Amino acid sequence: MDINTGIPEEERKNVAEGLSRLLADSYTLYLKTHNFHWNVTGPMFQSLHAMFEEHYTELATAVDEIAERIRALGEPAPGSYAAFARLSSIKESEDVPQAEEMVRQLVEAHEAVAKTARGVLPVADAGDDEVTMGLLADRLAVHEKTAWMLRSMIA
C-alpha cells in the first residue's frame, strides 16, 4: 500500500537515509558502551559500571525507536554489523582502554551522535516531518547531556 501521510516519497527517503546513519551511530555507541560496561576496571569501577549500564539501556530503547521511525517512513531499517559499520561515524574499540580513556571515547561518541542527529534536522524540516524532528530533538538532548556528564568526570 502507498503511504499517504503528507510527506512526499522523496522526502521520506531522504529522512530515512539520515535516520539510518543515526541508527548506525546509536547502535555502535550502544555496543561500545556495553563493551566498556563489561570491561571497566579501577577505582571508578562501581560508578562507571552502573552508569554505563544506564547508558546502554537507554540506547537500546533509542535504536528501536529510530528503526521504527525509519519503517514508518516506508523504508527498511539497516540491521547488520556490516551496514552499521558502513553508515556509522563512530569507530569501534577493539582493545580495552583504561577507565578514563573509556570515558573520553564515550564523550567523543556521544558528540558524534549529536552531530549526526543535528545533520538530519534540516532534512526532516524540509520534509515537514515533525515526528522525526521531535525524535531528533529528544536524541540531541540525551547525547549532549550525557557528553557533558561524562566530560565532567575527567575535567
Write the layout of secondary structure elements.
Blueprint: H1 9-39, H2 45-72, H3 81-87, H4 99-126, H5 130-154
Helix pairs in contact: 1-2, 1-3, 1-4, 2-5, 4-5
The CATH homologous superfamily is termed Ferritin, core subunit, four-helix bundle
Classify the helix fraction into a percent range.
over 70%
Q: State the distance separating the first and last CA atoms.
A: 53 Å
Mean pLDDT: 96
How many helix segments?
5
Radius of gyration: 16 Å
Largest sheet: none
Beta-strand residue percentage: under 5%
How many β strands by DSSP?
0
Regions with little confidence, pLDDT below 50 for 5+ residues: none
Order of helices and strands: HHHHH
CATH hierarchy class name: Mainly Alpha
InterPro entries: DPS_DNA-bd, DPS_DNA-bd_CS, Ferritin-like, Ferritin-like_SF, Ferritin_DPS_dom
Family: Belongs to the Dps family.
Protein name: DNA starvation/stationary phase protection protein
Pfam family, one: Ferritin
Structure description:
- The protein has helices at 9-39, 45-72, 81-87, 99-126, 130-154.
- The chain starts with 8 loop residues before the first helix and ends with a helix.
- With 155 residues, the chain is mainly alpha-helical.
- The radius of gyration is 16 Å and the shape is elongated.
- The chain has five helices and no strands.
- It has a single domain (9-153), classed as Ferritin (Up-down Bundle), CATH 1.20.1260.
- It holds the Pfam family Ferritin.
- This is DNA starvation/stationary phase protection protein.
